[in-house]
Write a structure and sequence with these properties.
seven-stranded parallel β-sheet, 275 residues, globular, 2 domains, disordered C terminus, three-stranded antiparallel β-sheet, Arc Repressor Mutant, subunit A, Rossmann fold, 22% strand, 10 helices, 42% helix
Length: 275
Amino acid sequence: MLAVDRRHRILERVAEQQTIHIAELAKELDVSEMTIRRDIARLERDGFLRRTYGGATAHVTRALELAFNARALQHAAAKRLIAMEAARLAVEASTLFVGIGTTCEQFALFLPPREDRTVITESVPVASLLGTRPGRVVVLGGTVRRDELSCIGPAATATIARYRADVAVLGAAGISGPYGISELFEEEAENHRMMIERSEKVIVVADGSKLGAASPAIVAPLSEVDTLVTDESAPADELASIRQSGVEVVVARRSSEAQARRTETKTAEKIRLVR
């Protein structure tokens, strides 16, 4: 099992049981306890886990419980693929708006750290993920919606108004030809409208289940979107309709994930050699 899959298995177990035992997990995955400890250390560094003293268990930090609950694990592989591809497309941006949702959280995981990058986000989980890494993170502030851990309200929109971005990376509850991008709640939709207005480029990240769907709050027509990053489950007719609207469509494929895994493995091997 590759390191990426092993860590995802650890996160799934934590989401289900809240705690994990290193010895049991090492036996189940047929690896050494030291390997599991290294995985937990990496996940802790990325903001997902907090180790207990003695190294026997790990559990999700309270601020990030939402990121790996049952809803987040739906279409998890697709979201990871989409996030990898979106991170590649946005890697040169010096200033980013990042929206809410589990795909945006995955995007934050795969975004390479840069000291000279500023990320402005409405998502508390995204801010938590990026806040310990190189670079500047601005969280909008205001009222926090409990279900999404998103910052909403006048204080949030006032913060957006103070910035511009090279790229906005936004999730969507629905995306379709007739209604464009839509969200579940008007407050998040207003945040996204303002981010789109203040960005040079707009990237929407959405797995195939979101295509053809329409949620109550309309964000923007497809003409405001530069690129849609989705996965292979996206309906062909919806992709054709979106392309006809002038949107660049990028379909993240499993070969991209395999390449990312090979890169991660090589990086880990180099780190071990240096040590």
